Automatic annotation (TrEMBL):
InterPro entries: LysR_subst-bd (IPR005119). This is HTH-type transcriptional regulator cbl. It comes from Corynebacterium endometrii. Belongs to the LysR transcriptional regulatory family. The keyword Isomerase does not apply. The keyword Membrane does not apply. It comes from the Bacteria.
Length: 267
């Protein structure tokens, strides 16, 4: 540390030591609560699911674990990945399922399903009859995006570079707000969708259209703290996620022989 007239400033070595100290404290706090998770078969799976994917992920996972012998009850919580990562670091969740581009520092992820964004439109929209479009087709549309970083900035920059950035009229932190705006005919949306169809909270159907020249690969992934060794039950969870019925034209399962954990270091 260095003394300053207005206080104390950490040196580079001090900042590095602080990161290590925080990591040690996180491990000490988390490990006792996760001990049962590393048993051959936990009595309960405490699962966090990113809100945008919960409607498809939860039924598939709950059904898969209910059919095991003995069955494993699934307790779940949905929310933003930042919220879920904090709960996992506090030992209140065993594992999180979410999108790779939202991976928080100090976690590692196992990608299971590649996903690219699709255009979400109401059934009566002129583009709804097409299976694929190009970004230029959005020039006269009003577009809404999901306001979650870093995905929002990445997508907005790409749209700007293709000359259609002006179409972005709003951004919401809630997927349901986007789906409601689209269902009401107020705008079209850009979302990662993994299901065969899409509906808003009121049950109104929406169409998902592939965008040929929007090359933004993402992946639905299993996430755990970086210091943890993968537990046997994660193999079951990966199989459960793979049972989700794929219907979007922009989804592709990762071959199990290519499974590889991806890390994002602590900041």
């Amino acid at each position: 540390m260095r003394e300053r007239s207005k206080g104390v400033q950490l040196t580079d070595e001090g900042r590095a030591a602080l990161v290590q100290a925080r990591d040690i404290l996180r491990r000490v706090t988390t490990l006792p609560a996760l001990a049962g998770f590393h048993a051959q078969r936990p009595t309960t799976l405490r699962l966090g699911i990113f809100g945008a994917s919960s409607a498809l992920v939860l039924p598939a996972v709950a059904r898969y674990f209910a059919e095991l012998t003995p069955p494993v009850p699934v307790e779940f919580k949905d929310g933003s990945l930042d919220e879920l990562a904090e709960l996992m670091n506090q030992g209140e969740l065993d594992v999180v399922v979410g999108f790779l581009n939202q991976l928080a520092p100090g976690l590692k992820a196992l990608p299971i399903m590649h996903v690219t964004p699709g255009l979400i439109v109401p059934p009566g929209h002129p583009l709804a009859q097409r299976s694929r479009i190009r970004l230029a087709d959005l020039a006269d549309e009003k577009l809404v995006l999901l306001r979650l970083e870093p995905a929002y900035t990445i997508i907005k920059r790409l749209l700007d570079s293709r000359g259609v950035g002006h179409t972005v009229r709003a951004a919401y932190r809630s997927v349901e707000n986007i789906k409601s705006a689209v269902a009401a005919g107020q705008a079209v949306g850009l979302l990662y969708s993994i299901g065969p169809d899409l509906r808003n909270a009121e049950g109104q159907p929406l169409s998902v259209i592939a965008i040929e020249d929007l090359e933004l690969d993402n992946a639905l992934s299993i996430m755990i703290p970086d210091f943890m060794e993968p537990a046997p039950v994660l193999d079951n969870l990966a199989e459960a996620v793979r049972t989700i019925t794929l219907g979007s034209p922009h989804t592709r399962l990762v071959d199990p022989s290519e499974y590889q954990w991806v890390r994002r270091p602590l900041e």
